[in-house]
Specification:
Oligomer: single chain
Number of strands: 0
Number of helices: 13
Largest sheet: none
């Protein structure tokens, strides 16, 4: 606790008993934002809001502290996300230039240009072109729970769910848990280490003995596979990759593995009645 923050013993008890709430909301938010949004920044804002909530809590209002604190924490995370310019105009402008150049070269060559040819036309290094593509992809990536990335509000977990919404929320988390568990081993390792254990990509790359760029590619591949699998089960949509070919067959096998692993009971067992992750 910050030494400059004065709290009573009762307030400190409320804070300590609800720290897991902040951790849960931060983890859920991290699944929906680009990788360069740092956990520490969100957690710092969330814990500060928790302290403020404890100091301003009035039991006489009849609102449980957990619900009151969740609203405060959500507001703090929203403010933090609004302050992060993770889809800057400069990135979008560079992406548009690259796409225009790609279309020009395609018309000239009669085929899709290579990254080297495209980089030469733009006068940039191939690595810089890859970086622009990666930045735009991160900004546009769909969340792991099947929702389109949009406003900051849409990226934050809800704070006041009715019983039916809570059940659906818990089921989504359960599906996500199963979907991660049946990912191909290499992809699962990347997701678990970079997202769940929050290890830097450099460490993950070193352990796999590959480059950070390769780890980023694996993570993007895992996100696409997760989205496809979750959309199929959660929204009862046909897989977007349901075509002939090796990739389609692999995705079909993956979707089938999710179906074979998951039951309503197993999905709900991942969280408690409040939607917080259950103890392992």
């Amino acid at each position: 606790m910050n030494a400059t923050t004065t709290v009573t013993r009762e307030q400190e008890t409320l804070i300590r008993e609800n720290m897991a709430l902040v951790g849960h909301m931060v983890r859920e938010t991290l699944f929906k934002v680009p990788p360069h949004v740092h956990r520490d920044d969100l957690a710092s804002a969330g814990y500060a809001a928790l302290v403020t909530a404890a100091q301003g809590f009035d039991e006489a209002r009849g609102v449980p502290f957990g619900k009151f604190a969740a609203m405060r924490v959500r507001g703090a995370l929203l403010d933090e996300l609004r302050g992060l310019d993770w889809a800057s105009r400069s990135v979008r402008a560079r992406a548009r230039r690259a796409e225009q150049a790609r279309q020009e070269l395609t018309a000239q060559l009669g085929r899709t240009p290579t990254e080297t040819e495209l980089a030469q036309l733009l006068g940039v290094a191939v690595s810089e072109l890859a970086s622009v593509h990666d930045d735009v992809q991160r900004a546009a990536v769909l969340s792991l729970q099947g929702f389109a990335a949009g406003t900051a509000e849409e990226m934050l977990p809800e704070t006041a769910l009715n019983p039916e919404e809570m059940l659906l929320h818990r089921e989504r988390i359960g599906y996500l848990h199963d979907a991660v568990a049946v990912l191909p081993e290499r992809l699962r390792f990347v997701v678990e280490e970079s997202y769940l254990r929050e290890r830097p990509l450099a460490e993950v790359a070193a352990e796999l003995q590959v480059t950070e760029s390769r780890v980023s590619q694996l993570r993007t591949e895992a996100l696409a596979l997760l989205k496809d699998g979750l959309s199929t089960h959660l929204e009862q949509q046909q897989s977007a990759a349901a075509k002939d070919g090796c990739v389609a067959r692999k995705r079909a096998v993956y979707v089938a593995k999710i179906a074979a692993r998951t039951t309503m009971a197993s999905r709900l067992a991942v969280t408690d009645a409040q939607g917080l992750l259950a103890a392992a």
